[in-house]
Structure formats: C-alpha cells, structure tokens
Design goal:
This protein starts with 20 loop residues before the first helix and ends with a helix. It has a single domain, classed as CDP-alcohol phosphotransferase transmembrane (TM) domain (Four Helix Bundle (Hemerythrin (Met), subunit A), Up-down Bundle), CATH 1.20.120.1760. Strands 1-2 form a two-stranded antiparallel ribbon. It has 254 residues and is an all-alpha fold. It is globular. α3 packs antiparallel against α4 and α6 packs antiparallel against α9. It has 9 helices and 2 strands.
C-alpha cells in the first residue's frame, strides 16, 4: 500500500513590523473618514472637516512611506484606492449634504450623487492608467483633479460659511452647482500638477521645510481662511498647469 503524498508545507514568511506602517496609515485614514461622518451626523461640521483634512494628510504620506520602506504591494494599492473613495468621495459628499439639508434641501442630494460618482470614476481611471505599460512611469501632471484635492475643493462653501457665519447659510442651489463643478474637474482631462516628481536641491531643503510649516500653522490658527486660500491657490495651479502643458505640446509639435 502506498502512502498518500505529503501536503506541501506553507512557507513561513517573516515580515518586518515597520513595513506594515503604510497600510496602518491607510486604515487610520479610513477610521478618520468614518468618524467624520459620525460628527457630521451630530452637526459638528468643523470637526468633520478637520478629520477629512487629516485623512488627506495621511493619504499624502502613506504611499511615500511605502516607497521609502520598499513595502509597496497590490494589497496596499487596493486599500489606498478604497480609502480614497470613502474619505474623498462619500464622506465630503455626505458632509455637505447633511450641512445643506438642515437649512435648504434643493437639489443637494442629486449633486451629492454626481460628485460621488465622479470621484469613483476618477479613481477607476487612475487605477487603469497606473497599470498601463505604455504610460510613463513618472509624470509631472495628473489627468484631472485628484480625489484628495477634490475633497478639499468641494468643501469650499462650508469653509466660507464657517468664516462668514454672521451672513447666514449659503443657498443650497449654489452649493449643489459647486459640487457638480468639482466633480466635473475630477473626471476632466485637465492637467494638474503632481508633486510626486518635484525635486529640490539639498541646499534649499531647509527653506522648503520651513515654508511647509506655514500652511500647517495657518490650519491650526486660522483654519477656515487657510483652507480658502489653499483652494484658491490650487485653482490658480490648475490654470498654470494647463498653460505649461499646452506650451510643452506646442514645443513637441514644432
């Protein structure tokens, strides 16, 4: 009688704990987004906005830390995409809906649906493009407004209302139009700057670090005014990126 073949033993792989940090940051961002919904349901919109901004900050560092630690993985990429849809699509949309619907329903729910759909389409297009072997590995431009930037932009009416609360709430139709506009920017073909490829000289690094602390200090001291200024500067950045991209296209054609 022949014995049954031995089962293949599962190979044990030891993973350094430090390589889990990027995924932990992504999961922390998801927790921040879900908690933002909780505070929005309670009507505490300043805390909800703060948690969305915090989630955007975590999203800005988790991928860079993953590349630094050489711990990039397909699981991490999927987690990041799902977190972006929640934190920068669903959460800002619901936050604005809950904020506006308390005073003026209007067409805010339709605008919320449009914004969330645009966000998921933007993320789907990015995921497909990142797997395209013909696409350059690094580019200084994104196609359309990225999801984190879209979330910060779409909340602009809330920033204005918090800064100028003595003037009363903004009309619902105006907020709805703004949501649809930002959603359109996300799925557009407009070039927007990607800071992943930005390089600075080592001699100027200390000045860059000090300069980056200015918006952080502004967010802690004058959050609503700082967020409005950041949105305005980003919109100017879109115009500048469009001009640079057109100039580059013209130079290549000639």
């Amino acid at each position: 009688m022949t014995k049954a073949p031995n089962r293949l033993r599962r190979v044990r792989r030891d993973l350094p704990l430090i390589r889990l940090i990027p995924n932990l940051l992504t999961l922390a961002a998801i927790c921040a987004g879900m908690t933002a919904i909780r505070f929005a349901l309670k009507g505490d919109f300043p805390v909800a906005v703060g948690l969305i901004v915090f989630a955007a900050a975590l999203d800005g560092v988790d991928g860079r830390i993953a590349r630094l630690l050489k711990s990039e993985s397909e699981l991490g990429a999927e987690l990041d995409s799902l977190a972006d849809f929640l934190n920068f699509g669903v959460v800002p949309g619901l936050t604005l809906y809950l904020w506006v619907s308390s005073v003026d329903v209007g067409g805010i729910w339709i605008a919320t649906l449009i914004y969330v759909i645009c966000c998921v389409m933007r993320l789907a297009r990015f995921n497909v493009g990142s797997r395209d072997p013909l696409k350059p590995a690094s580019s200084r431009f994104f196609t359309g407004v990225p999801a984190p930037a879209g979330a910060i932009l779409v909340l602009l009416p809330l920033y204005v209302d918090m800064l100028l609360h003595d003037f009363g709430p903004l009309p619902g139709p105006l907020v709805s139009a703004h949501m649809v506009l930002v959603g359109g920017l996300m799925i557009s073909r407009l070039p927007t700057y990607s800071f992943k490829t930005v390089r600075v000289s080592a001699e100027k690094a200390r000045f860059i670090l000090v300069g980056c602390m200015i918006p952080v200090a502004g967010l802690l001291t004058y959050p609503w005014l700082t967020l409005i200024v950041m949105d305005v500067l980003y919109l100017f950045g879109i115009v500048a990126a469009l001009r640079v991209a057109r100039r580059d296209t013209t130079d290549k054609e000639t």
